[in-house]
TolC family protein
Amino acid sequence: MRKLLLAGTALLSALATPVLASDAEPGLPPTADVTAALDAHPSVQAARARTCAARAEARALARGSHEITFTGSYINRSVDREGSFDEFDGQLLRPFRLPGKARLDKEIGRYGVTAAENRAEDARHQAATLLAESWWNWLGAAAEARVDKQAVANYERLLEAVRRRVAVRDAAQLDADQAEAALGTARVAAQQSEGREALARARLATQFPTLPLDDAAPDVPRPDLPPEGIEALGRKVIEHSHEIAAAEAGAGRADASASRIHADKIADPSFGVRMFSERGGAERGAGVLFSMPLGGGHRSALADQADAEAGAARSEAMAVRFAVKEMAETDMTEARFRYAAWQRARDGLNAQVAALAKLREGHKAGEIDLSDELFGERQVHDAFRTEAAARIDAMRAITRLRIDSHAIWIGDPND
């Protein structure tokens, strides 16, 4: 019985010991490995490609779509009693942006690049959130598997001790049957938790194939509240939000586009030159060309549409700000109550271990029935699982808060 108590105490001590990753981030993979995994994720690469597309679009808008058009023709004319004549004409025509339109086009391009860059950073943020969630799922399943494996070992030792007592007629066969039934239940739980661990690892490896993973998951460290303070990190969630920046840039682009379409109510004029030769060169000439579309109801309707879309973009940007503020409040609240719940689970585990020690001593002295000790074993097993789950939830919540505030993995926390 003393061996059983020592085994449980050793497991409790192991679960309480913080485990530091190589870059001093407790329980998390090395930052260099995470950076490489995020860079290789398809969603991040796609967002970066869209940023390159936005920069190219900005260059195109700055240059404008107004290009020189050349038109030419050649005719061989035959006139009765006069003969045939070679005739040709050619003209060059180019539209010109009216004052102010080039500035608006450049502004639209700049807003587009800003929005794309922030969406790319937000895509990296979402990938980091997915990695952290998958990572803690794996470590959580592995922690439960270790608890269940230790429970199997405890029940095996208990069954062996009961069988020795049955052999010397110090216990009934019923006691051995009860111990064996408890062992069978523990083995089923261990098998299921091992399967969940393998599944969580497979999902993590599939989503982030470049992230190095050991065969065995590292231990889950003891949670610690961020040294920066939860309130400070909560403010940074809003201050460093690329989602808000992208939405505001999109609203700015919509406003600039609406102004550009209003400016297009007066169409851009085109200027050019024309040269011609007729009757075999007997008639020659050159002139200046001018053309300008006269706008009507269609351009006014497009301007009204752009105004409405700009208003919608501004409202959407405000909704995004509300959503990010809600996320910040949620992150702070969850970090607080998950940490407090882990502390309560920890206290409960200590109490259960102390109670089990008394039950074991009582059963050894013949004062406690085996059924009572088995009940205590189950309670301690459940307490270990509860503590492990609470520890994972606390670490998950703290990690999410630190990622959302750009304290780790993404962006520059001082930017």
